[in-house]
Amino acid sequence: MAALDPGEDHLRFADWAKDHGVTIDGIAPAQFVGRGMGIVAAKDLKEGDLLVHVKNTSLVTPASPSVRKHKFSTNTTIHGRLAAHLALEYDSKDSEHALWRAVWPSQEGFRTILPYYWPKKMQTLLPRAAQDLLSTQQTKLDKDWRDLSSSIPSISKSLFTYTWLIVSTRTFYWDYPDLPNSHPRLPRKRNVLKPDDCYAMCPFMDYFNHTDIGCDPDAKLCLAQPLSLTKLQVKNKDGYSVTADRDYKAGEEVYVSYGPHTNDFLLVEYGFILESNKCDAIPLDLVILPLLKPSQVDVLKEDGFHGNYTLTTTTPYACHRTQAVLRLLTLPERRYAAFVAASDDGAVDQHRVNAYLLDLLKQLSRQIMDTLEDVSALSTPDPDNRRRSKRISTTPSTLIPTSSPSKEQNDILLRRWKQIRDIVNTVVTALETSS
Ligand SMILES: C[S@@+](CC[C@H](N)C(=O)[O-])C[C@H]1O[C@@H](n2cnc3c(N)ncnc32)[C@H](O)[C@@H]1O
């Protein structure tokens, strides 16, 4: 897709970045339809070319003097402290990062793309995995606001929410393993770093859009709750760099991978989904957990195999945990035990397990078609035609709805449900063919 002129603000910010510890070579900011800003190859690039380097001292972390000066309680999260810092600086023309801030998406832009701001009826129609992520996001944001609001009395909840979401969508995961403890502009290195300790905002780097390239879709690993941070591939003790992963022609968009994220995660955290995503998966917990007897739940908990069951479109389709639970549901317990203990690869039982899975997926496929009807009805202009779904679980009470659905919101929701339908139907067809 063609790269469009970025506009004055972006050129000014790029010049500022070059004077403030950011080395940029062969790339430039540009606009892309449907993705906001991104990075374009400004000349032909070779695999391995260093494209951008940001010095550690140009990062914004809780140890940056401009953040430290607020003396926020260290008992508050780093996400919250960064959001509070950005909110306090928001109206200041003298802030050192005023030019950077001018190129971020607007609050209005976020209202369209981020499910956090969507009307309640749209939130209730999100896939369950996305609803759960949204509820977690809301809980974290509310807690940060509760913990920090008394130290930022001039800041409204609405501004704090915006800057908190700026931090979510533009922050890098930074575990600074090699850094000396002594440097005053760097966070103290702790023995054990928690994900929350590892936030860093990174000027110019946050122009890169995401693709799934570089993901390792290992079907044996079910997706754990991923970090809500943009993860860049290359970092060293001097700062962050991005190196070309392949050759690029001038004019092509250059992406990075934010991590092995499903489309439900990308939708809630970043407000978009990929058309094709090697890392996509859908959870099967809602389908499988109700089938378990209490004694089976005990066995699975004891073995560490309770919940977190996922389906992908690559063989063996159902992840290792799902393969295990399906064995417990369909076979004598000793066959399940042998599989879990890895004393048997389970191949002789695969046919029976697949047949059971096929039945479950056919039922799921019918439910998805019903949901798709509900989502399509939302975009139907006549309000009498709109049906509220009784099949979808209720929205967690903490979600904050706004206004009525926009066309963009309808479109992305519909596209996501069609993707889920296609994942399930692809596996149904594959299992039918192999049986
Ligand atoms: C780190 S910022 C990237 C720069 C951003 N596009 C901008 O306009 O400033 C992350 C945001 O970019 C957008 N984005 C990133 N990758 C995308 C993609 N592949 N397709 C659509 N939007 C994308 C999402 O809005 C996301 O919240």
Tell me the layout of helices and strands.
Layout lengths: L7 H11 L3 E3 L2 E6 L3 E6 L8 E6 L9 H4 L9 H12 L8 H4 L5 H7 L6 H5 L3 H21 L8 H14 E3 L25 E3 L32 E3 L2 E5 L9 E2 L8 H8 L11 E2 L1 H4 L5 H10 L6 E2 L8 H11 L2 H8 L9 H29 L28 H28 L1
Antiparallel strand pairs: 1-4, 2-3, 3-9, 4-8, 5-6, 7-8, 10-11
Helix pairs in contact: 3-7, 3-8, 7-9, 12-13, 12-14, 14-15
The protein binds S-adenosylmethionine (SAM).
The site of S-adenosylmethionine (SAM) has 18 residues, from strand 3 and helix 8.
Features:
435 residues, alpha+beta, set domain protein methyltransferase, domain 1, four-stranded antiparallel sheet, three-stranded antiparallel sheet, globular, binds S-adenosylmethionine
Write structural notes for this entry.
With 435 residues, this protein is an alpha+beta fold. Helices cover 40% and strands 9% of the residues. The chain folds into 2 domains: 8-280, set domain protein methyltransferase, domain 1 (Alpha-Beta Complex); 283-434, no CATH class. The protein has a 4-stranded antiparallel beta sheet, with no helix packed on it. Strands 2-3-9 form a 3-stranded antiparallel beta sheet. A hairpin with a 3-residue loop joins β2 and β3. α3 (78-89) crosses α7 (128-148), α7 packs parallel to α9 (263-270) and α14 (350-378) runs antiparallel to α15 (407-434). The longest helix is centred in the C-terminal third of the chain and has 29 residues, at 350-378. The protein is globular. S-adenosylmethionine binds at residues 34-38, 105, 113, 169-170, 206-207, 209-210, 230, 270-272, 274. Residues 20-259 form the SET domain. This is SET domain-containing protein. One of its GO terms (molecular function) is protein-lysine N-methyltransferase activity.
